[in-house]
Model the fold of this input.
Amino acid sequence: MVGLLEGRVALVSGVGPGLGRSLALACAREGADVVLSARSTDALAEVAHEIEKQGRRAMAVPADITAPGDAERVVDEVRAELGRLDVLVNNAFTTGPFAPVADLDPDEWRTAFEVNVIGSVAMTVAAVPLLAESDAASVVMIGSQAARRSQPRRGPYSASKAALLSAARTLAGELGAQGIRVNTVVPGHIWGASLAGFFAQTAERRGTTSEEVYESVARETALRRIPDAEEIADVAVLLASPLARAVTGQSLDVNAGNWFE
Done:
């Protein structure tokens, strides 16, 4: 069976043990060779090995998307090694700090915007010349429901993810003439080890169980469950694939019906 991304090259930033891994593996499963990038190299070799076990090529390029010239270096290495780029998935992000706005200084806001917005835009801009050579170029931003529903103590994260949504729309409008589509996946809670740990801490604080914390959150969704990283990754692949060839400038919420946009 031919995969949705058969014969293409996908670059995934922010590859780690969570969503970044799932995004990379989903691209490989659908037939793409995958370029893996992240500041920390710990997960790159492991995920690359998993991709190669699927019969696809994996290329690891450590980089910090906030460092001057790193985005261009990554793309240059992709061109030199693989000769093409069809899909860019901008997943690199930072979540902190978690504090009231009155307790934050401007530098803490700048860090969130440098990673969550400027870094993703810089990677996209650096990739444009190579993406423009593809006959099916797609950029997928990984957003957050925090952009839709601001919560106390999450000001920099919420604001930066909202700015990323706007930046994606701007890029879609400007890059469409070059055949490059730009869309955003907007996850809510993502079930996995990180969220499970948070639920365990919450349960201990409340004097209840992790299962009860899960159920209290799941009850707020229409489907009564929390999506996992693989389900988020599947939607990213959908937006990157020919099935979405007429879709650009859009954002698709993946939250099991926790929030309707």
About this structure: The chain has eight helices and seven strands. Strands lie at 9-12, 33-36, 58-60, 87-90, 137-142, 180-187, 251-254.
